[in-house]
Amino acid sequence: MVSAIGATVIAVGAAAAAVVTDNMVPTISTPHLCAKGRVCQTDNKDVTYYMDSSGEFKLEAVDKSYVTAMLKSEYSPTDLVIKYDATPKFSGSAETDVVWQEGAKGLDDDAEGMAWCDDPVSGYKCDQQVIRIRGNGNYDPSITCHEMGHAVGLLHGGSAYPALPSEDSRLGCMIAHGYSSDLGSNNVSNINGTY
Predict the structure, then answer these.
(1) How many Cβ atoms are within 10 Å of 50's Cβ, its own excluded?
(2) CB-based contacts of 100, cutoff 8 Å, min separation 6
(3) How buried is residue 2: exposed, middle or buried, by Cβ count under 10 Å (0-12/13-18/19+)?
(4) What's the CA gap between 121 and 36, in Å, rounded?
(5) Residue 68, number of CB atoms within 10 A of its CB
(6) Phi and psi of 192, rounded to 5°?
(7) What pTM, to 2 d.p., does this model score?
């Protein structure tokens, strides 16, 4: 990273993109190591995902379509390689990277969703992330974009460096409330600079 008149520049292939803030864990404001229950980076750029299809946390067909469409439009164009895992692994090495669930269990009363590391491996990396979004119409392109951002290590504006107001539109879908469904150029640059 090179500082240039208040903006950070990250080389992305042959092009360079201006970054408004570093909101990829770790930041100067949020230097924590990965631990169970925290926002962490996924363990590599090849990101497998699974959507619960039975039991307590089963996603409905419409919710699955929101996740699939959002990953294709927002995260697949980044340096991440997104692939569906029809035979998920929940233990051992090479676990499925992101497990999507629907339900309110374990969520704060005012939370629409949450993403957390379930299996930290080292430093800032996690082998398996869980995303749980409250049911009954709460799944949509914006909340799915937001929680996937956490699953790859993106933080809210207050945890970024320099810190931004939690509703700053430059945070794209990582604003704290009233989410945008667009990942945004700042988040894309941070993802590509990391992975």
Answers:
(1) 20
(2) 49, 50, 51, 52, 59, 67, 131, 133
(3) exposed
(4) 10
(5) 15
(6) -65, -30
(7) 0.90
